[in-house]
Amino acid sequence: MEPIQWSRWMSVGNDSLDEDHRVLIAIVNRLYDEAGRQDPALIEAILDELIAYTRHHFAEEEAQMLRLNYPTFAAHKALHDRLTQQVEAYRADFRANGGGISGEEVFLFCSDWLGKHILREDTRFGEYAGSEATLAMTGTQVVTE
């Protein structure tokens, strides 16, 4: 188990979204630290922060997708909704069971999901957004037959 390391491969070509991703990675990585894996109060605080920041980030990303008419918006939003529900379920389980889940378990889930989501889904949106912006700036229209 290693902390998540930001790499250029994670960039979606949008400074705002990239910065949000860096913040999310930093929050998740706090669960990697010894205290973040063992201290129930800290785990709960990290979960609260992760949920709040995730909601903020997803709202921003989804607004950009809507503005650009992203063709797979509904599927991408569904992925966001599932992650939010899963992390909220972790937090609810954590509260109900007095810390019955470990920070390590939450870290592993979130780091796996976040890495895959950024590398697969968000970079796809970044490519689309980049091509849409390029087309808009040059006035070029895509012609379909």
UniProtKB/TrEMBL annotation:
Leader peptide range in chain numbering: none
All copies of domain Hemerythrin-like, residue ranges: 13-125
InterPro entries according to UniProt: Haemerythrin_Fe_BS, Hemerythrin, Hemerythrin-like, Hemerythrin-like_sf, Hemerythrin_metal-bd
CDD domains assigned: Hemerythrin (cd12107)
Alphabetically ordered keywords of this record: Iron, Metal-binding, Oxygen transport, Transport
Gene3D superfamilies found in the cross-reference section: Hemerythrin-like (1.20.120.50)
Protein name per the record: Hemerythrin family protein
Organism lineage string: Bacteria, Pseudomonadati, Pseudomonadota, Alphaproteobacteria, Rhodospirillales
